[in-house]
Amino acid sequence: MRSALVVLASFAGGLALLFLVLEQRPGGGWRALDVAVGALACLALLLRRRAPVAIGLVLAAAAAGCATAGVANYVALFAVARTRRIELAFAVAFADVAGALGFWLLYPANSELSLTVVVNTAIALAVVAWGALHQKQQDLVAVYRDRAARIERERELRAEQLQLAERARIARDMHDSVAHYMSLIALYAGGLEVAGANAKDVGGTATTIRTTATKALDELRTVIGVLRDGTLAVPQKTPHERTVRGLVDEARQAGQLVVAHLDDEALRAANPATEEAYRLVQEGLTNARKHAAGSLVTVRVRRDGPDLLVTVTNPVDPNAPTLPGGGAGLLGLAERVTALGGTVEHDLIGRGDGGAGEFRMHGRVPYR
What we know:
Layout: H1 2-24, H2 31-44, H3 52-63, H4 72-81, H5 86-106, H6 113-195, H7 202-229, H8 244-253, E1 257-262, H9 264-268, H10 272-291, E2 296-304, E3 307-316, H11 328-339, E4 343-349, E5 357-366
Parallel strand pairs: 1-2
Antiparallel strand pairs: 2-3, 3-5, 4-5
Helix pairs in contact: 1-2, 2-3, 3-4, 3-5, 4-5, 4-6, 5-6, 6-7, 6-10, 6-11, 8-10, 10-11
């Protein structure tokens, strides 16, 4: 459609130029031939993008004897100027000026030859400059579009990476919470096994097991629902629901032996360090239930200058039954604490010949 409009506009301009020529050149038995040649020249513009230089030279030659082609040849020159070959554009411009000179010699007009040369040279140079600048502008637009597309792709890639990182965080949180509840259930079940079927507290313990299992399922439903709808925004529990002392009390109710030395004032503050202290203690208690069931667990949380120190220790008996664990909890915990500028260490100290010793997990989190 655009090319057809260019052809029609060039033909209309050529006809207008022909009428101007007829005013200065009486007679005109050649008018029909001029119009026919001019029409063919304008149709040739449809090929200007495939062979711009060839079409430009052909139309320059046509304009030397055809007034109706006097606009089409400059349209072709514009196409040559857009090829980024400025030397070819000047060559075709020279051919256009030569064609105008030839037309003046074939059909002398009232104007001076020098004026004809100057005017056509100015027009040709203006068309070359216009075409070159237009192409430069198009190139810049293409560069900016490519840059915008690249930035958008990078933004999408960063968003995907953040989404993957958030999914990994959610998976770690789910692991910590579910492992915590599952280890409590195992501890309660162990208590039932020891107490026997006729114990008075069997009903209460069974209720506690059911409640704990329900909490674990609720955690799973929340995370699965978040992953399904794609929001990746897990509802955060309030500080009152996530307290270190609450973890300790919960463990004691399940029958775990826990001695806690807690800096309640430091833990009450709304601080990222208190959140990680909660996770450190949660992981420490969970590991003790998995690998040292029935042993005494010692939990210490205190301020040390700009840091919050968390230490969880428990004896290790190589002959004691253990629950399966993949080690993902400690790894994810270390990643979170490291991201805050802290450290997490865990080791087995005082190990004897029989493999017994004490497992210690120690975390240092910047208290901001």
